[in-house]
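dumping this here before i forget
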Amino acid sequence: MTDTRVLTFMGRAMRKAPGGVAIHVPFDPAEAWGRRDSYHVTGTIDGVGFRTTLVRRDREWRIALGPKSSSGARLHDGQTISVEVWPEGPQAEQLAPDVAAALAARPRAQAAFDGLATFYRKGWLRWIDATRRRPEVRAARIAEMVRLVEEGQKDHQ
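structure:
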């Protein structure tokens, strides 16, 4: 992947008591990808794919993998690993111009939208795209999405 949003680093696996694994993230995700309510990411660890939400613990960001994660299950405590990580799902630069402009005009809504899990972002976009032949309905749905996302609602239902 050649996306500029992809960040690569060498890390160290830290085994946790319940069986999961944590990997220190050596960068600030807000500086790399913009301020968000949460960071849903995907990537690879030594070539094996993973998906998770970055967590902040002890003033640092970490990739946290549960005990059932296929990516984490094979890692040993202290093992040096190669990590590639990037934001998951549709990003602001991939949105339709009208949706992107509406979100850009409301920074809190933009941050909230960017912080949604891919499932919810795609749900909003499908709901809006279902109106392509009715521009007046599309505009109303975009405005409603911006308002609701800014209020903390994850979906339109």
